[in-house]
Amino acid sequence: MTVTNQPGFNLITCPLVVSPVNTIGTVLNNASGAFTGNIVYFYNNATGLYSEDNALPVGTGKGKTSNANGWALGGTNVLSPGTACWFENRLGTNVVVTFVGSVLTGPVTNNLVAGFNLVGSMLPMTGDLITNSVSSFTNYNLGDGIYVYDPVTGYANGTYLTDTSVGTKGQHTGYNGNWGSTGDPILPYVYSGFWYNNRVGITVNWVENQ
Fold first, then answer.
1. Residues 92, 165: one domain?
2. Alpha helices in the chain (DSSP H)
3. Spatial CB neighbours of 20, under 8 Å, sequence gap ≥ 6
4. Per-residue model confidence as pLDDT tens digits over 64-118
5. How far apart are alpha carbons 116 and 119 in whole angstroms?
6. Is 78 helix (H, G, I), strand (E, B) or coil?
7. For 160-185, how does the pLDDT look when each residue is reduced to its tens digit (9 = 90+)?
C-alpha cells in the first residue's frame, strides 16, 4: 500500500500487520535515508502529551540518525493497526511510503477510551466511517466528536453525535445520520488517521470485520 505524505503535517495510520513488529523503525525504516528530514509524533491519551522521533540530519540539534533504522530515538513508537500518528514532512516535496504487511482477519475491535483518541481503521478502508461494509460502532456517547484532517485544507468541521430527538436536523433512526449538520464523518484515504473525542468516558467499541 502506497502512502503519499504531502509537505507539512499528515495524519497517517498503517492498517497492516508488519513483520516483525509495527514499530516506526520497521514500518518507516530509514536505513536508506529516504525519510531523513522528517518527524513523527505519537499522542498519549493518558497524559495528553506527544512523544516524537525524528530522522533529521546530523547537526540539526534534534538528534542524530545513527541508529540502524535511521531514527534518532530508535523508532520504537508502535504504529499498529488502529493507531494513528502525525508525519511531519519537512522536505517541501511529497514523501512516498510503501506499507507492506498482512490484513487482519475480523472481527477486530478498537477501544476508544475517555478523551481524545488518535486512531485509524484497523482494516484498509475509506469512505463513510458509519455506513460502510466493514465498520460498526457498537456503542457511542451523545456528544462524541470526530475530526478528520487533510494536509492541504486542514481540519474538516468536527462532526458531533447529536440527540435524534432534538435540534434542527429533525428525527432520525439508528446511528447513521445522527452526526449533526455536517453528516457522517468521511475517511478520505485508506491510510488516514483521525481524532475521536470520547466526551462522556464510557469506552466506545469500534468493531470492524471483512
1. no
2. 24-27
3. 26
4. 455 778 888 888 999 999 999 999 999 999 999 999 999 998 799 999 999 999 9
5. 9
6. strand
7. 555 443 333 333 333 555 666 566 77
